[in-house]
Amino acid sequence: MLKISNVETFYGKIQALRGVNIDINKGEIVSLIGSNGAGKSTLLMTISGVNKARTGEIIFEGKNIEKYEPHNIVDLGIAQAPEGRRIFSRLTVEENLKLGAHANERGKHFNSDIKEIYDLFPVLSDRKSQRGGTLSGGEQQMLAIGRALMNRPKVLLLDEPSLGIAPKLVNQIFLAIKNINKEKKVTIFLVEQNAKKALELADRAYVLVNGKVTIQGFGQDLLKNQDIQAAYLEGGAKS
Ligand SMILES: Nc1ncnc2c1ncn2[C@@H]1O[C@H](COP(=O)(O)OP(=O)(O)OP(=O)(O)O)[C@@H](O)[C@H]1O
Ligand SMILES: [Mg+2]
User: Fold this and answer.
1) Which CATH number does the domain housing residue 106 bear?
2) Could you tell me the residue range of the domain that residue 10 belongs to?
3) pLDDT at residue number 88
4) pTM to 2 decimals?
5) How many domains does the structure of the chain reveal?
6) Coil, helix or strand for 8?
7) Residue 237 has what pLDDT?
8) Which of 14, 209, 213 to mutate to test the pocket of ligand 1 (most atoms within 8 A of CB)?
């Protein structure tokens, strides 16, 4: 469904991605793990068209999209809940969700879509008139995911949804991600530093080191992989 081939992305002279190859099949949950600065967010921003690949191809449902503008990529069916959430803090929860559904075609479904998001995250319904900036970190993350879902994506890109969030809410968010995949049939590409959770949830996963994929495989196999255990799982600091 989404094929990333030999993608290289630069910030000026700094090369952040060094020939990344990743395949995502329809219906899968694919996780990407890696340390700070590995290039995970750069890859998601490159898929979303915010950063442009200098070389390589990104093919979505048979179309080359690496030169598309971000709004065209959203229109094709790829939405992102970015790292750090980036919700509108002065707007209410419901206004934030409304902004997700920007195009007319999708706007028609606003009421039923918003109800589905409130079913998925009931706390957002309780707080629909509250300003985004006054939500807790975990609630803001739910809102960011909800806003991305308002675009009715075929593929949802999630950048570190567990970052800085209490364990109880992290579990809720991971359950919701599973539900979005299984019930709403949305393909998921999940970037995480919480390697244990990300591998447990994933059908398949990739490890990114210094802008390159070093290991790939089934999530369950990577959980048992000794190199991954040593680098990302032992000590329990991130589990
Ligand atoms: N706007 C930018 N200008 C210059 N360099 C950047 C910029 N954004 C990211 N980089 C560099 O690109 C590399 C990859 O950064 P990126 O944000 O993609 O990493 P990451 O894997 O998402 O890390 P983290 O887990 O900390 O979010 C880093 O070396 C970073 O310093
Ligand atoms: Mg990042």
Assistant:
1) 3.40.50.300
2) 2-233
3) 92
4) 0.94
5) 1
6) strand
7) 44
8) 14
